[in-house]
Amino acid sequence: MHVPDHFLNDPTSATTAVVSLAAVGYAAYRAREDLTPRRVALTAATTGFVFAVQMLNYPVASGTSGHLMGGALAAALVGPWLGMLSVTLVLLVQALVFADGGLTALGTNVLLMAVVGTLVGWAATRGVLRLTRGRGAAGAAGVGAFVSVPASAAVFAGFFAVGGTVPVPVGELVGQMLSVHTVIGLGEALITAGVVGLVLAVAPGVAAVEGPARSAANGPLVPDAVASPGAAVSPGAVRRAVLALGSGALLAAVVVSSFAAATPDGLEATAESVGFADAARDHAFAGMPLADYGEAGGIFVGVAGLVGVALAVALTAGLLTAGLRATTHRRAATSPSA
Question: Concatenated DSSP letters for 144-196?
Fold first, then answer.
């Protein structure tokens, strides 16, 4: 659901950019106290994995495909605040390096996928865990992922109804967006549940979703927000989680990306059906070698995917490490013994 430039008018795009900036800034503020070297590593691996799997469009109907948004998955692995930052960095790399998602629409895409997708997915996951008394964390994350996709689609439809650059029948727009993205949400749910289940199996105690699962099962033994990998989680468990996510990212980006569906995704198909596809403007970086994941420069998609995963991981690790150092220095400066 990467919105291109000029689907929305300038005031609407500017508004979504401001809201997204505020939301991501708040997420960074909330995440800073939870940062540890292990969480930095896990979040970097999560970012690389989400980037890679977003390259894999899967068919959902004749002439239509979908791809992972990743907000619910990131939240289940590292919590909602780091998850929001993780998906935001994926979208930033996609927009600036691969011409995927418009530049003026970057705030819109962050709001739809990183903010709405992550927070709705996390809220739904926690709700399911309360109903099941903490059982089935992977399945709960899958339900959260399923709910997050049509929720984001509905928000886009609302934005377009208010600030779309082309007049369209609003009822038809909402119906098309919700119907196709409900089906796409099934794929999102399966991927999310599978990945979270794998991480739970190979690295118990690492995934953030285990925090509310234990709270729902046993009472408030841990904070209801996230389970933070710390002293109680072995370094080996974190390494296994990072290895699993890293291996999956490389497999998806380098190998499986060549077999991704080439049909329009849910938003593109809706735009063609409802009649606003021609409103999109070409991306400012459309002529760059890595645009369209290497297609513009004749670069093999697997090589482009490898570059993208490396950039996503490096950017996440660098920014979060800088944040961790700043937090550590601040704590040292304000401690009574300083």
Answer: HHHHHHHHHHHHHHHHHHHHBSS---HHHHHHHHHHHHHHHHHHHHHHHHHHH
